[in-house]
Amino acid sequence: MRKVISCLAALIVVITFWTCNKGNPVGPNQSSPYLYGKVVDNQGNPIEGVRFHYIPSLIHVASPKIKLAKINSIIRINFVVPKESYVNLSVHRLYTQDLIATLVNDTLSAGAHSVGFNDSSVTDGVYYYRLTMDTTVIVKYIVLIQDSALLPLTTPLALTNSSGQFSEPLRIFGIGMRFYVSSSQGPTPTDTVFIPNTIQVVLYKTGYKTLIEPITIDTTYSVNKQFTLEK
């Protein structure tokens, strides 16, 4: 079951997230330490083509539990266009700003609109959507978390090369980001959560056992880590 944690005001989840981070998402033009990983087999031989995913954690600051509704893989993004305008709505990965999907790129009439985003092929992580209406730009964040057994069906963050290596900037994990949480019934904050510095690395390749391993990250330093996959 996919859990979608977001700042969307009318999703089919019980909670929504209003991020404390203001402005545009930090882009890769700023320097960032990296997670450098190497994947080998039991004999120490590098394994090419291993799919790298991760599962983010969330810590609830104000209350220990928040209930999530069962949902399908369609996220609804609802917005209001004040007047007939050119609208562009796109979903991007945090920090790298990789384009995941363009949902709207057209002139829309004034009024309320709702657009679906099928996230069934999108791996776990922190994303944002950018809504542009003429000169107005709105950016809100989405955290996707699903059962680790389903991650191999999604597009990975990275694939290992012929040396068994992969790398990702640490800022892509959203560590330290803090959110206000509110119910889908209104914007009043009911909780606060943040993304801690421990993530679950998920490595998958057909013919090997899926590896799920927690790692703790200090975002001021690059991390070098070797992983072993078993047949």
Notable characteristics:
elongated, single chain, 5-stranded antiparallel sheet, mainly beta, 231 residues, 4-stranded antiparallel sheet, 51% strand
* Number of helices, where a helix is a run of at least 4 consecutive DSSP H or I residues: 0
| Low-confidence region ranges | 6-18, 64-71
Biggest pleated-sheet summary = 5 strands, antiparallel
How many strand segments?
A: 18
Helix content: under 10%
Query: What's the pLDDT, averaged over the residues?
Result: 82
- General shape: elongated
Radius of gyration: 19 Å
Report how far the terminal alpha carbons are from each other: 27 Å
N-to-C SSE series?
EEEEEEEEEEEEEEEEEE
Broad structural category: mainly beta
Percent strand equals over 45%
Count of spatially separate domains: 1
Strand arrangement in the largest pleated sheet: 1-11-10-7-8
